[in-house]
Design goal:
single chain, Glutaredoxin, eight-stranded mixed sheet, FAD binding, oxidoreductase activity, acting on paired donors, with incorporation or reduction of molecular oxygen, NAD(P)H as one donor, and incorporation of one atom of oxygen
Length: 530
């Protein structure tokens, strides 16, 4: 017997579960299959950036994730600062051991004023903490998740995808999303190629518990890059008494993950702490490679790739899970619109057009940063982009955007939100129904048009054309439905008197009329029909 579902998702990591959550919130009931027996118990992918938190905000998960991550803010960091809305600053130190922090030096430091451009801010939260939250929210919204179930084969035709599972089951789906990691079975089955710079290093992540006394005058940090000949790698503070040490090993020297016995892991933890007698409890040790990879395509017919299945990169910048969740959100609202009959299949072509350039640029940025160890080579300086630009300031140019600057870089040189088509809509605080809300919260489910004062004709036209075409759309009038104090947001969005902004469900500006137009129905009918 063949089971039927609208969307089959392979992989129940953060990306697959996020895809399921974003689909389920739009009325689609996806099926997720995962070959693992359970969710991750390892606190990897610990940094969730502001844009990712904005997306989880739309799904009601921002506060639960923040609550789960409050304690993961670095040694002696005051959680009250995080509770008050201040992002945890990223500080990466270079040191020989924790006992020698007085002799450490700063490799990388970021303390970004997120409140200037976002209602959200980054958080340090282990995957083992936030993954269950995404899972539970997705299931509550209507998704089904099956563990211990792997995809073994697939075929597709003009009407859908037929997938074979390892239990002998067959599933028929309208679309399939491969969120099954860097060694993606889905990518291999549909024959999508890849380009790669190779591996930037081989590691074993050791999770251990130990009571480590830091020097009273030790500098604060988020990460430590251990520059110790006896144990080199990245040391991450997870929570009080719990650490993760990603130790380098070198196959060219005859080393392998098999060398990492529990006893050897205890020794590495003691070297990292600078205490040869430290009492250490090793929870786990897992090998992994810092691999660079960009898939040649994100789509093959009715099959899509997301997350590490289509772009993998070293952990520098913490881009991996964040880029994957952004893939998931971009794809989910488009799949839902097509499945609900609100858009034609051509909308799905814009997933490749928008996310592939971002995935490639992000992977290349991570590779460059990881190889530089915080010290960029002169030839890389012109290509380098600050991590907040990579995660929030990227630009789209596709058929789902009209009026994007033709010469705009995928990753601009500086962060700016000016209401240009193809960019994330500017954040500002406005008043709706007597409540103060961020403009980011206005653009979460449907297409939305915001008309500047004097632009009421745009709002009337948008409502009329949307009803004709059967496209869900909401319209706001500044000064009527939304109170914009001092017209600050209107100016930030580049709207003159009589202008309007059309924003997609992912908060990306689809089109902008800076002022009043002679005709209103014609451009809006063209836009909404497309």
């Amino acid at each position: 017997m063949t089971e039927r579902t609208q969307v089959l998702i392979t992989g129940a990591g953060p990306v697959g579960l996020s895809t399921a959550l974003f689909l389920a919130r739009r009325g689609i009931r996806p099926l997720v299959v995962e070959r693992r027996a359970a969710l991750s118990s390892i606190p990897r992918a610990t940094g969730l950036h502001a844009r990712t938190m904005e997306l989880f905000r739309t799904a009601g998960l921002e506060d639960p994730i923040r609550d789960a991550g409050l304690k993961i803010v670095g040694p002696d960091q005051e959680t009250e600062l995080v509770r008050a809305g201040r992002a945890t600053p990223l500080v990466m130190l270079g040191a020989r051991s924790l006992a020698e922090l007085r002799e450490s030096f700063v490799l990388e430091s970021h303390d970004v004023p997120y409140a200037d451009f976002s209602p959200s801010w980054p958080i340090w939260c282990g995957q083992d903490h936030y993954e269950p939250l995404i899972h539970d929210a997705a299931v509550a919204a209507g998704a089904e998740v099956r563990f211990g179930t792997a995809l073994t084969g697939l075929s597709q035709d003009a009407d859908g995808v037929t997938a074979t599972l390892d239990q002998g089951e067959t599933v028929r789906a309208d679309y399939l999303v491969g969120a099954d990691g860097v060694k993606s079975t889905v990518r291999d089955l549909v024959g999508i190629g890849q380009r790669s710079h190779g591996s930037a290093g081989h590691f074993v992540s050791i999770i251990f518990r130990a009571k480590i006394e830091l020097p009273d005058d030790a500098p604060r940090f988020t990460l430590i890059y251990l520059m110790n000949p006896a144990a080199q790698g990245l040391l991450l503070y997870i929570e009080p008494g719990r650490w993760m040490f990603g130790v380098n090993y070198y196959p060219e020297r005859g080393q392998s993950p098999a060398d990492f016995t529990r006893e050897r892991c205890v020794e590495y933890a003691r070297i990292a702490a600078g205490d040869p007698h430290l009492d250490v409890d090793v929870e786990s040790y897992t090998p992994w490679d810092a691999t660079h990879m960009v898939a040649d395509g994100y789509r093959a017919g009715r099959v899509f790739l997301a997350g590490d299945a289509c772009h993998a990169h070293p952990p520098a910048g913490g881009f991996g899970v964040n880029a994957g969740v952004q893939d998931a959100h971009n794809l989910a609202w488009k799949l839902a619109a097509v499945l609900r009959g609100e858009a034609g299949p051509a909308l799905l072509d814009t997933y490749q057009a928008e996310r592939h350039p971002i995935g490639a640029a992000t992977a290349d940025q991570a590779w460059m940063l990881f190889r530089s160890r915080g010290r960029l080579a002169e030839e890389d300086r012109d290509r380098y982009r600050d991590f907040v630009v990579v995660t929030m300031g990227y630009r789209y140019d596709s058929a789902a955007v009209e009026g994007a600057p033709p010469d705009a870089e995928v990753l601009p040189r500086a962060l700016s939100f000016t209401g240009e088509p193809g960019s994330r809509v500017p954040h500002g605080w406005v008043v709706r129904d007597g409540a103060r809300v961020s403009t980011i919260d206005l653009f979460t489910d449907d297409l939305t048009l915001v008309a500047a004062p004097g632009g009421g004709a745009w709002a009337d036209s948008a409502a009329r054309v949307a009803a004709e075409l059967g496209v869900p759309l909401r319209a706001y009038r500044l000064g009527v439905d939304l109170i914009d104090p001092d017209a600050g947001w209107q100016a930030a969005a580049g709207l003159d008197h009589g202008g309007a902004l059309l924003v997609r469900p992912d908060g990306i500006v689809a089109w902008r009329a800076t002022g009043p137009g002679a005709e209103h129905d014609v451009p809006l009918r063209r836009l909404l029909a497309r």
